[in-house]
């Protein structure tokens, strides 16, 4: 898997890099986000102030496959930029994340996603799986930032995505928001 030298502190035997310090550009999130409780109050995440909570109907339309559908999601006014969160039934702990990341990587390759890049980052004292890739949509491509960690012995998966034309505007914001994930 491709990772840059400056972001790569070590690589585990799965090929997923493990970043021990946050190298992403920091910005003042308080100007663009409000920290909200997610995953039944077990975590907090900064949500852009202009985002609204998605209805169940909109979640079902945007995330057609029930096994990847978030239980809570937020979107901009046009539905072009989205954040979603769910706690899966998969058993997980900090020790399991490297193996889970390897399994996720295999799934992403099987789906022929483009520009797949993954790592395990240390975020506020916790290991978090992070993947970026481009996926197809009906009339465009989608930039995806997928992240996962354990909460109460289960795997929590978060998704950020936007239409490809907004990637340059949102990529650094999404990474900075991720760096503020806190599990209670």
Descriptive notes:
The chain is of the alpha+beta class and 184 residues long. 18% of the residues lie in helices and 42% in strands. It is built from three helices and twelve strands; from the N terminus they run βββββαββαββββαβ. β6 and β7 (81-91) form a beta hairpin. The longest helix has 14 residues, at 97-110. The protein is globular. Mean pLDDT is 86; it is low at 1-25.
Task: Quickly describe the structure.
With 184 residues, the protein is of the alpha+beta class.
Q: Tags for this entry?
A:
alpha+beta, Protein Transport Mog1p, Chain A, nine-stranded mixed beta sheet, three-stranded antiparallel beta sheet, globular, disordered N terminus
What's the oligomerization state?
Answer: single chain
How would you state the average pLDDT, rounded? 86
CATH fold topology: Protein Transport Mog1p, Chain A
How is the biggest beta sheet arranged?
9 strands, mixed
Write out the strand line-up for the largest beta sheet, numbering strands in chain order: 1-2-8-9-10-11-7-6-5
């Amino acid at each position: 898997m491709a990772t840059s030298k400056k972001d790569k502190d070590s690589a585990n035997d799965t090929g997923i890099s493990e970043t021990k310090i946050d190298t992403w550009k920091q910005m003042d999130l308080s100007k663009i986000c409000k920290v909200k409780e997610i995953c039944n109050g077990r975590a907090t995440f900064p949500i852009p102030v202009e985002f609204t909570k998605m209805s169940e109907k909109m979640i079902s339309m945007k995330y057609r496959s029930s096994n990847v559908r978030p239980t809570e999601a937020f979107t901009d006014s046009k539905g072009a930029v989205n954040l979603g969160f769910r706690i899966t039934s998969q058993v997980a702990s900090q020790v399991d994340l490297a193996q889970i990341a390897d399994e996720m990587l295999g799934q992403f390759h099987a789906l022929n996603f483009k520009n797949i890049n993954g790592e395990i980052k240390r975020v506020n004292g916790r290991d978090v799986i992070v993947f970026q890739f481009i996926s197809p949509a009906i009339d465009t491509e989608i930039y995806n930032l997928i992240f996962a960690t354990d909460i109460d012995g289960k795997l929590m998966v978060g998704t950020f995505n936007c239409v490809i034309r907004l990637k340059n505007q949102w990529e650094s914001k999404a990474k900075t928001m991720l760096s503020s994930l806190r599990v209670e």
